[in-house]
Amino acid sequence: MAILVIAEHDNTSLKPGVTNTVAAAHKIGGDIDVLIAGSHCAAAASAAASIVGVGKVLVADAPYYAMAVAENLAPLVVGLAQNYSHVLAGATAFGKNLLPRVAALLDVMQISDIVAVESADIFVRPIYAGNAFATVQSSDAIKIITVRSTGFDAVAAMGGNGVIENIASATDAGISRVVKQELTKSDRPELAAAKRIVSGGRGLGDGDKYRAVLEPLADKLGAALGASRAAVDAGFVPNDYQVGQTGKIVAPELYIAVGISGAIQHLAGMKESKVIVAINKDPEAPIFQVADYGLVGDLFTLVPELTAAI
Amino acid sequence: MKILVPVKRVVDYNVKVRVKADQTGVETANVKMSMNPFDEIAIEEAVKLKEAGIATEIVAISIGATQCQETLRTALAMGADRAILVETAADIQPLAVAKLLKAIAANEAPQLVILGKQAIDDDSNQTGQMLAALLNWPQATFASKVTIANGEAEVMREIDGGMETVAIKLPAIITTDLRLNTPRYATLPNIMKAKKKPLDIVTPESLGVDVSPRLKTLKVVEPAKRKGGVMVANVAALIDKLKNEAKVI
What we know:
The complex is a heterodimer.
Chain A: E1 2-6, H1 18-28, E2 31-38, H2 42-49, E3 56-61, H3 70-81, E4 86-90, H4 93-106, E5 110-114, E6 116-117, E7 122-127, E8 132-138, E9 143-147, E10 163-166, E11 176-183, E12 196-200, H5 207-221, E13 224-227, H6 229-233, E14 254-258, H7 264-270, E15 275-280, H8 287-290, E16 293-296, H9 299-309
Parallel strand pairs in A: 1-2, 1-4, 2-3, 3-10, 4-9, 5-9, 12-13, 12-14, 14-15, 15-16
Antiparallel strand pairs in A: 6-7, 7-8
Helix pairs in contact in A: 3-4, 5-9
Chain B: E1 2-6, E2 9-11, E3 33-35, H1 37-51, E4 57-64, H2 68-78, E5 82-87, H3 94-108, E6 112-116, H4 127-135, E7 139-149, E8 152-159, E9 162-169, E10 172-176, H5 188-194, E11 199-202, H6 204-207, E12 215-221, E13 230-231, H7 235-245
Parallel strand pairs in B: 1-4, 1-6, 4-5, 5-11, 6-10, 7-10
Antiparallel strand pairs in B: 2-3, 7-8, 8-9
Helix pairs in contact in B: 2-5, 3-4
């Protein structure tokens, strides 16, 4: 068996989930190659070659791969897929956008968001916002899979000695282009890969209070900031802060939920966290049913007190 | 310009689902069913484009059992002009859905297909991208703003680090994210009017599509329950637990 991992990167470095996707490939077993398709992406390619267990790093370098447009990447991946039994990517906005397009062109069913590998053709994936887990078996010759990073412990990003090989690019489909990207700038850890997360909900009242109350705590803990859908919809923070069924799926060592009631769609995104702390004024809030430690009271008093005491 | 909007009948998002005792799936008998929330957003966006004079006709499509007619009537009450039900009792997976929609698109020749980004039952997040591939059309997934002009759609997308704006040539596929719009409620007069709008019924066979499933579900189980936690009295007690019991700070 041979497995191709489609790496998400920004041409200079790899996204954190790539090492988790490679870990899933290890569970399947077989040779593991990584595709880096980008523009001036040599740095990303050498980072991929350093991942433990990677055999070849295939590099397709073309201007029209710079922004990871699915219409351009899909034909490239389809061309390579014939040489592999499995094609994997992270279940991120990148992987979710690209791989179903690849799967349909190959006439195979994608297996989305796997959290466990049972065998080379049997996988476990959450359904109904993680309220059930389905074990599914694929009958397709090539398995196209997106990997939920929280299901697999990352392999070491350094210490590997993969071989970098340049490959031919496919053509520019010319039917879509990226006009602009507005990325949230932050010195904090990336939400999806953070060890600690401080997350806020509607209970914080508004965006100014969200920042005034939560940022000092996150600073002290070196934590990423997250939010419930309610807080995002109310405009407290940008959309990429959202943790939940349709936002980011996280599993940090410590998740502190402040003023979050705990709708099932939010719990779906964070209940795999190792330790969950909930601070909420409503003792009946569902968040307390999944929290390891619950503290009932006024968050505007308790959170600054907690920040001062850490 | 004609717009197709596929809609799926799913377990209502407020229902706490229960796994069947025989592990074959999730209990759906006597459970409230509704239109997939992302598909409501898709219908709303199409209706807005019609109100803006950009779209001329909206065709809602559903695939599944007879009861999907209810979901289609909701779409019609929200403002779709007519509906097509692909009636089948089979387990229809996203690849098969995409093939059925491709067959309908060949008959209808739309300029735009707007779909929900994922269904909240199987959480697959595949159909729009697959349909785009089969039609060789561009795709703008996870849309939070859509502008149509000069034969192009300019779409703001929600991506992991923030927002991205793409320009795609029509005909094209758009899939909706949560913040694209707030779907309207169907009013009583519109619900009455929707009963008279045309609803055609076809089958996978009449569309010439093989819908055999490629994934076999071996079992469905409940997630491991988190052990019930403890309530702490104050911040000092919380700090003590985090330091000495959980050892995370």
